[in-house]
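pasting input
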Amino acid sequence: VLFQIMELCGATRLGYFGRSQFYIALKLVAVAQSGLPLRVESLNTVKDLPLPRFVVSKNEQESRHTALYSSDADNSASYSGVIPPPPGRIQVKKGSVSHDAVQQRTSTDQQESTSPVVSPQQSPPTSPHTWRKHNRHPSGGNNERPLAGPGPFWAPFSEAQPGSSTSSDPIWSGHSPPPHQENWVSFADTPPTSALLAMHPASVQDQTTVRTVASATTANEIRRQSSSYDDPWKITDEQRQYYVNQFKTIQPDLNGFIPGSAAKEFFTKSKLPILELSHIWELSDFDKDGALTLDEFCAAFHLVVARKNGYDLPEKLPESLMPKLIDLEDSTEVGEQTGEVGYSSSPAEAPPSKSPSMPSLNQTWPELNQSSEQWETFSERSSSSQTLTQFDSNIAPADPDTAIVHPVPIRMTPSKIHMQEMELKRTGSDHANPTSPLLVKPPDLPEESKMSSSVKFTAGNTVTDGYSSSDSYTSDPEQIGSTVTRQRSHSGTSPDNTAPPPPPPRPHPSHSRSSSLDMNRSFSVTPGQQQTGVVAYPPAVPPRPQPSQGAGPHVHRPVDAEGLIAHTSTSPQQIPEQPNFADFSQFEAFAVSGVNKEEEDEIETHSEVLQVEKPSDSASSLRVAKADGRVEDKAPANVPTSASKGTTPLAPPPKPIRRRLKSEDELRPEAEEHTQKTGVIAAVLASQPSIPRSVGKDKKAIQASIRRNKETNTVLARLNSELQQQLKDVLEERISLEVQLEQLRPFSHL
Amino acid sequence: VLLSIICSPPQNYPLYIRSVPTENELKFHYTVHTSLDVVDEKISAMGKALVDQRELYLGLLYPTEDYKVYGYVTNSKVKFVMVVDSSNTALRDNEIRSMFRKLHNSYTDIMCNPFYNPGDRIQSRAFDNMVNSMMMQVC
């Protein structure tokens, strides 16, 4: 049937579907649907032709056509309802869209629109209802689509049109896009009779539309197309073609940009109020570069068209209009960071419009968790989170662990890959770009899991902050993410991100202290005796180390980093255990000497926390001596802190931790007070090692593990920072105590 | 309570005013106005130091009124002023800075819009959304 229709209206016409043709085609469709024989005459004769029932295909094709629709008054019966509005719209469109042949149609349209306008209105009312139902139905998902594309539009359109365009609008509110398209369609509906005459040099779009319509016969196809968007904002092929042509008129290079001023002039022609144009611009200029790429331009154009058809502008850029990252890959790659300044703010603007790539991006995060582990190991080696980012960018050259990172880019959707590339550009620009490093991961990485892991790592790198930033970052997958943009957003965030990782102990002296205090209080078990003031550290520390004694060394290690602070206090038991703690034994003596109290007092002072190593040792020994174990806390804390300084705050993967924390291990045994933490950490760590293994496994498994790891990392990082803080404090105390000890020693001899 | 205002040079007329709940707006407007003077003063004092991107006002804290005024100036002398309640416990410095940064970013985005004429009142929905979300986050 479609073919027949096409023949009738199209074959006779120009090779393409001009507006008139389209109208004719629509009418024929209606005719066909109503069971009438397909005849050209029927178009003109059947006034009450029910509006063709088209599944609500959100194809914009229709919408494009609406512009093209020259209201054919006659058979507008079915279309009639549509016609009145369309004509008006058409004219409006003409204003906006008229960049080309539309104007031609205008003339014909106007003629046609007048007459049809009247008749259709009456008939449509009934049909619209049916259509409405019909449309509603399909809008969900394009079900039947007799005619695939045009159908839906018309239906909604006709419904909207019939006089009560307003009333229909509410109906269509659900189909927001459809109305838009409907408008398009309505034009088409206008009796093509007259249109037949004016074979306007339909733009290529028409042809495409027609073709699409034809293909729509397959029903689902078109439906899918339209429904795929699931929103009326989809740009049909014809429309897109049209937009592209327009783009060319302004900017011959399709890969180039339209500068803001030119775009402004262009869109001002649409006679929309400046405010709306401004809003459209905000929506469509995805990368916020002040210029429109082809995709952006199409989106903007589409929005203008929609607006002209009475369709309200969305608050955020619809998904279907989001510029494809892939397309922009090249441009972005080139470092033209012109456009794709994907500010994190932009995501805010278009959150809903997250493209499908987003989900994939989100998925990568869990993977990232996994990789974070690996990354952590890596980072530990590098002893700086910053290097991590470079790794990402450098792919996996430096560190074998980075290999793991590779998968990240692969896993990403094309857009992601694109982003990754951008990340690469940003190489080293900011460490904390959780997303960028991950994304950047050159496709070299063979395994996706690796990628995810690396991504995870990056994310993990920045601790929780990283996640948030990366999340915000990822939220812009659509954004072409010019490196510039990324850098900007990341740099904004990265400093924050990087900050947390490297200097966990340092940055939060006060902050961690409070937290550690809390923890200490909660943990306070053994140190009951300790003084209140200092209690902060010792109490916290002792409880932790103790429980964890059982944990394996490596387990402790990661934990140690965190629990170092905590376990100082554990107790003399630990001290004797370790041979390395010879110092401690010495300190024990000191500690016993009542330095405790002084130490405690001094614990609060952080002055030399960082000096650490030795003080930590002494502290540890002191701690041994002290029943309070405060010193111990310090010592272990010191050691771990110092050791872990290089390591990322994230829960250090077992391996790196082992290396660094070897000394800590010794301390650790004492410090197994971190039971609580260690217990948790152990669990986490235990799971972590397994994560790398899973690299080769299912993505999902990896992702899940990544997520777990991420969570673990977060927890561990937090613990780590707290412990480190405590460690610092303890070290300080120890130092002070030592000093006092020295001072007191002579007295002891007396 | 949070109120943010963006004022543009040279006359320092406000481009955007948004305040959260409480309707003490007038008082806030007045406060902002007076703070603008302080901002200008700081700017001029800068001299060659040029743009110190962020300025933190804690100086305008009136003991009775109990609110803090923060200021921020961009390279193009566009001033952002934020008034927050002191009762709003610890809005830390970093948070204020990040808020200003976000404001600045959004403002730049608006500037990129060719349909926006500098000096117009800011009517961007995106900007509004951002500011709203920011304020909700604080309050």
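fyi Chain B has a mean pLDDT of 72.
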